[in-house]
Amino acid sequence: MVGSWLIRDLLKAGATVIALARKQATPSDPALQNVTWVWCPIEDRAGVERAVREHRPDTVFHLAAQSLVGAARTDPWQTFETNIRGTYNLLEACRLNGGAVKRVVVASSDKAYGPRNEPPYTEDMPLQGRGPYEVSKSCADLVAQAYCQNHGVPVAILRCGNVFGGGDLNWSRIVPATIRCCFKGERPVIRSDGRSVRDYIYVRDATRAYLRLAELLSDPRLHGQAFNVSLERPITVLEVVNLIRELMGRRDLEPEIQNVAQGEMRAEFMSTKKAREILGWRPGFTLEEGLRETIAWYGEYLKGAGELR
User: Fold this and answer.
1) Catalytic one among 88, 113, 121, 133?
2) Does domain 2-165+200-233+267-284 have CATH number 3.40.50.720?
3) I want to staple 199 with a disulfide (CB 3.0 to 4.6 A). Which of 106, 156, 219, 230 is the partner?
4) Could you confirm whether 301 is annotated as catalytic?
């Protein structure tokens, strides 16, 4: 989802985009058809190295990942293969083609900090993931820093809060799932007790942060550094659901709180002071503004998919 929005921004800026994708398919979005697609799993070391060698990109954005916490818990091996092996495969390809690659931005997450750090998380905290997904993000971060410090790969890391926006069709996630329920007149489902605190960021602000960091990576002082980006507005899951209900005029749909989720951290949120001061980055959308655009996107999508009359 983030990658598709980033591609749109890059194309608008006049970039030539080469995109790596796991499965061969024809993108439904016309904008995404103006891209050179390479069909290759990120775990395929030879395929990734060949793609970098043949296309010689000057800028690499590494967003490929297994991104669902629940799926990571169910299948930790595949999560480690994709998120850890995939990261060092790509960075090794960049190292071997260092004459072409001038900057690499690695996508990370607030989950990399793990349960032993007290929020708000700052970039100087140790990376201490414990669950399979969290461990994979901690490891990917450390792999990126190792390639920078030991091999001079010009890489920097962006750690995002929970990204939401149009195009996320993982209905297990709270924002798209709640919006879909409200459109269909169904009660939103909260698998936890609803009191877990999270920090969010609208996808268009996340892509602006990726582009901003890449633009500034010509400065070697940024190499190997990590930056947090989020709205810095900690909010409970129940509050997010209620906000979506309010924006969609569906106060009548009382959430169903199942309280069955396991292994969730009680609070995860970050400080973005470093990104504001060094990158000059600030979110352009409030939570409400981002949700309104997201709701509009899903309204159109669900109509087109035949889920709404």
Assistant:
1) 133
2) yes
3) 230
4) no
